[in-house]
Write a structure and sequence with these properties.
Largest sheet: 5 strands, parallel
Number of helices: 6
Mean pLDDT: 79
CATH architecture of the largest domain: 3-Layer(aba) Sandwich
Radius of gyration: 18 Å
Helix content: 25-40%
Low-confidence stretches: 126-165
Oligomer: single chain
Strand order of the largest sheet: 2-1-3-4-5
């Protein structure tokens, strides 16, 4: 079983306001929080950083929240990771679908502080049984089903091999030089600290650079692919 980073939580939501609200709620139980705006970025961060839990919205680009749940469950390094899915649709059919794809808890939005804290601290739902769904390389189609409705196994095995074989690491000498950046709060130069190099596969490699502000404005993350800087603590 993969050991999670107990001080780290992952929030997956394109709405910055939701991310800020969840961060405030979760500060008492985790000291570090990563953010992802789309499902592909979330999968890469979850595999590379192995957070204590994942909180995800449903309406995500590239990979929606439901598919993200199934992909996380299909990968050995994230199979035991607690997943909380937050949705505006909490009808019985939606909740059943989310649970069948791997979500441990399903919360309606807006969710209360108490409900969110309880959801992430309860951990994995051991009653959940993985569906017959295999992982896939991002950017390609999901595995096709045969005439009997069963998922073909070969593409799933290849995908898991590519994901597992891809090298992920922390470094201060990353492949892409971190750019000089200024703090968005005080306009002072930021201090480069480290980089996380990962992603889902060699074809979909990612690099996140981390900076701190000398004036204690916080810690910032720069995503090389999108060239976006955001505060993470």
């Amino acid at each position: 079983m993969t050991v999670a980073t107990t001080h780290l939580g992952l929030i997956v939501d394109p709405d910055a306001g939701n991310c800020d609200r969840y961060r405030t709620i979760l500060e008492p139980i985790v000291s570090d929080i990563e953010y992802a705006e789309d499902g592909r970025e979330a999968l890469a961060l979850a595999i590379g950083r192995r957070p204590r839990f994942v909180i995800t919205a449903t309406g995500l680009r590239f990979i929606d929240g439901y598919t993200l749940c199934s992909l996380l469950r299909a990968e050995p390094v994230t199979a035991d990771m607690p997943i909380v899915l937050v949705t505006g649709d909490t009808t019985p059919a939606t909740v059943t679908r989310a649970r069948s794809l791997g979500a441990d808890r399903v919360l309606g939005t807006p969710c209360s502080s108490g409900a969110l804290l309880q959801a992430v601290t309860l951990g994995r739902n051991r009653i959940w049984t993985p569906p017959d769904v295999q992982s896939t390389v991002l950017g390609s189609k999901l595995p096709e089903t045969g005439s009997g409705g069963r998922v073909e196994q070969s593409s799933g095995r290849r995908s898991r091999f590519l994901v597992a074989a891809h090298r992920r690491f922390e470094t201060t000498t990353p492949p892409i030089p971190p750019p000089p950046l200024v703090c968005p709060s005080c306009d002072r130069p930021l201090q480069y600290v480290r980089s996380h190099v990962g992603g889902v596969s060699a074809r979909l490699s990612e690099q996140w650079d981390y900076y701190t502000c000398h004036r204690a404005c916080g810690t910032f993350q720069y995503r090389q692919r999108t060239r976006r800087l955001r505060q993470v603590s």
